[in-house]
Design goal:
Elements lengths: L1 H5 L2 H25 L17 E2 L1 H9 L1 H9 L9 H26 L10 E2 H25 L10 H30 L18 H17 L2 H28 L17
Antiparallel strand pairs: 1-2
Length: 266
């Protein structure tokens, strides 16, 4: 591993970072313009090959964010730096929840007749993306970045950490509310109400976008910025698809005043 990282690591990192920036418009434009939505959840449709149980799919596709990050940590120049470890803990906190806890939460929810699983192809694509992103984020924090000892006392870190915390709390709350609604509906769907659901159709996506905006601010890095932009490029069009789905499924009941993902704006 050490030899692999030393051999062309900086060049590989640069190319990987450029690739993530390029993926942003390549993801956003087809999803928004062509209204293509990954075929799982509300947008499940046939013809995408074998399906994985949702809990297993989430565990597998999110797992590189944990094991690859921990695998790379000992090979970083800043592996023992308290600032680097503090920053990395935010990233790991989100993904330990997403990899280990969230699959257990959704496993308890009854499956709907229209949502039987996640196509293996979709899970594999997410797995590959998380490999790339985990490498970029962890390698920046533990090796290429160079934070001052007082970074944790700077306004950038404080503001970013606050945005991240609010975003994660929103994301976790909204996800659990959706799972609870699915239980109430016996595996079907109901109009979500209360909290941020009164303002947007997808507060879970609002929260996740906020998290990675906070991460970009607290790390003040191109890697963090690229991840935030990619998250928005992926989730904003999907939120638009969810919003339209709700309007079509509940034409009389669904509040048309709600926005898609950004309160009062979009």
């Amino acid at each position: 591993m050490a030899l692999l990282l030393e051999w062309g690591d900086e060049a590989f990192y640069t190319y990987a970072l450029i690739s993530l920036f390029v993926f942003c418009p390549l993801t956003f434009l087809p999803l928004l313009v062509l209204r293509f939505h990954a075929p799982y959840g509300k947008h499940t449709r046939g013809g995408w090959g074998p399906l994985l149980p949702p809990s297993l799919a989430w565990f597998l596709m999110e797992s590189p964010t944990v094991w690859l990050t921990l695998l790379l940590l000992p090979f970083g120049r800043h592996r023992s730096d308290p600032v680097a470890l503090a920053l990395l803990s935010f990233y790991l906190f989100h993904y330990i929840h997403r990899t280990l806890i969230y699959p257990l939460v959704i496993r308890k929810a009854p499956a709907s007749s229209s949502s039987r699983g996640v196509p293996f192809a979709v899970a594999f694509a997410a797995f590959v993306f998380n490999l790339l992103n985990a490498y970029l984020q962890s390698r920046w924090i533990t090796h290429f970045g160079n934070y001052t000892p007082g970074w944790l006392r700077t306004p950038k870190f404080a503001a970013g950490a606050a945005v991240f915390a609010i975003g994660m709390a929103t994301n976790v709350w909204a996800d659990r509310r959706l799972v609870a609604l699915k239980r109430e509906a016996g595996g079907g769907y109901k109009v979500p109400k209360g909290g941020l659901f009164e303002l947007v159709s997808c507060p879970n996506y609002t929260g996740e976008i906020m998290e990675w905006l906070g991460w970009a601010i607290m790390t003040w890095s191109l890697a963090g910025l690229a991840f935030f932009l990619y998250t928005a490029a992926n989730l904003v069009p999907r939120a638009a698809g969810h919003h339209q789905w709700y309007l079509q499924k509940f034409p009389e009941e669904y509040p048309r005043s709600r926005k898609r993902v950004i309160p009062f704006i979009y």
